[in-house]
Amino acid sequence: MSSRNPSDVWHNWARTETANPARVARPRDLDELAATVRDAGGLRVRAVGAGHSFTGAAVTDGVQVHLDALSGIERVMPRPDGTAHVTVGAGTRLSDLNVALAARGLAMRNLGDIDRQTIAGAISTGTHGTGARLGGLASQVVGVRLVTAQGDVVEATPTDRPELFEVARLGLGSVGLLAAVTLDVVPAFRLRAVEQPWSLDAVLEHLTGTDGLVEANDHFEFYWFPHTRRALTKRNNRVLDDDLEPLSPVRAWVDDELLSNAVFAATNHLTAAVRRLTPQVNAVAARALSARTYTAPSFEVFASPRRVRFREMEYAIPRDAVGPALAEIERWLASTGELVPFPVEVRFAAPDDVWLSTGYQRESAYVAVHQYIGLPYVRYLRAVERIIAGFDGRPHWGKLHWLDADRLAQLYPRFTDVQRVRATADPMGVFTNDYIDRVLGQVR
């Protein structure tokens, strides 16, 4: 453990949170991680990963723990059906994990749209992808190894310490420091990606139903450009390994780097400087989108480079509420004159049984709203939060929101069980901070 200069302040990726911890720990192995907790000396302890959470989940004034050394695949346990249980260090970046799994002929069932996070941070905050028959990343976890508030190392699974397992796999690190997780993975697969601009009206008309866009595709999402009636649709479906239609390197660079990052950054700088141009810029951007189709390994399709910084809020709502929710957001934008250059992202997920999952026992649609880092964001996000409240929305644990434990207890049927397990596992609040206390309540 090393001292840190008080002026050496940590920032998260979106620059919404800062921390100036009393000490910084970079444990080299499990023993040093356990010793870090035992030697905290009354300071609060929080792990930090890639800093991609928009909330204060990783903030601490005590001991900040970096898990980078606890990374990589520890063991692979093949199963008769071709799947496998793979144990990986908690500090493993998703980008590295995807490559390591692919080298072994394996893949995660589903992923989010960025891969910079650590596996521990991703599951602990409820990261998810899109797919009507698939849950979030935490639903793929079948075992955890964690360091408790006493500095002990314990293992938990659905059958061994099942309640601790539930809160450890998605609980904001409130019951211990994750050292490793065991994932249920599948044989590597390829996806055929079909990306097309549609009218928003057509998307909403064909969204649901047996043959609708959500149910008829393995993975479906769309991006609506505010101040327009245009959307970009993305349909990703599994294909055979010999169905090859790769995207040319030049087209990939033009689409994913030049247009999606460099040009998008320039247009956001422009609209930040001249706000009134936002509707026209969005209209041009929406109409400039070109369709593309390609096949690639699953993880290369799921994740995209995101170099333009933004602030984000995302809520899970019932699937049939997407149209009404977007209509209300559009009405608010029109009535207030608020200008938003970032698209609204809509994704879908299956119900799951993870206690703090935003998809707990409910077919969900995820509505994510963003604002460029150079623009004010609170008014817009708070307005959307008020709108989503009418649909019993559940906020993503790692993205901006203003709910507290009293309201969240009304949205999650197992919320009091989470509080009970947390109080037992960490009665002195070793692993808490202001954000954890706000959303889970103070340990009593």
Task: Fill in the keyword field for this structure.
eight-stranded antiparallel beta sheet; alpha+beta; 444 residues; six-stranded antiparallel beta sheet
What's the total number of strands?
20
Q: What oligomeric state do the depicted chains represent?
A: single chain
Mean pLDDT: 94
* Rounded radius of gyration (Å): 21 Å
Helix content class: 25-40%
Distance between the termini: 30 Å
Q: Helical element count?
A: 13
Shape: globular
What does the model show?
The protein is of the alpha+beta class. The protein contains 13 helices and 20 strands. The strands form four sheets. The protein has an eight-stranded antiparallel β-sheet with strand order 16-13-15-14-18-19-17-20. Strands 7, 8, 9, 10, 11 and 12 form a six-stranded antiparallel β-sheet that branches. A hairpin with a 6-residue loop joins strand 2 (10-11) and strand 3 (18-19). The longest helix is centred in the middle third of the chain and has 25 residues, at 249-273. The radius of gyration is 21 Å and the shape is globular.
List the helices and strands and how they pair.
Elements: E1 2-3, E2 10-11, E3 18-19, E4 23-25, H1 30-38, E5 45-48, E6 63-66, E7 73-78, E8 84-89, H2 94-103, E9 106-107, H3 119-124, E10 141-147, E11 153-156, H4 162-169, E12 177-187, E13 190-199, H5 200-205, E14 219-224, E15 230-239, H6 249-273, H7 278-288, E16 292-297, H8 298-302, E17 310-318, H9 322-336, E18 344-349, E19 364-372, H10 378-389, E20 394-395, H11 405-411, H12 415-425, H13 434-440
Parallel strand pairs: 4-6, 5-6
Antiparallel strand pairs: 1-4, 2-3, 7-8, 8-12, 9-12, 10-11, 10-12, 13-15, 13-16, 14-15, 14-18, 17-19, 17-20, 18-19
Helix pairs in contact: 4-12, 9-10
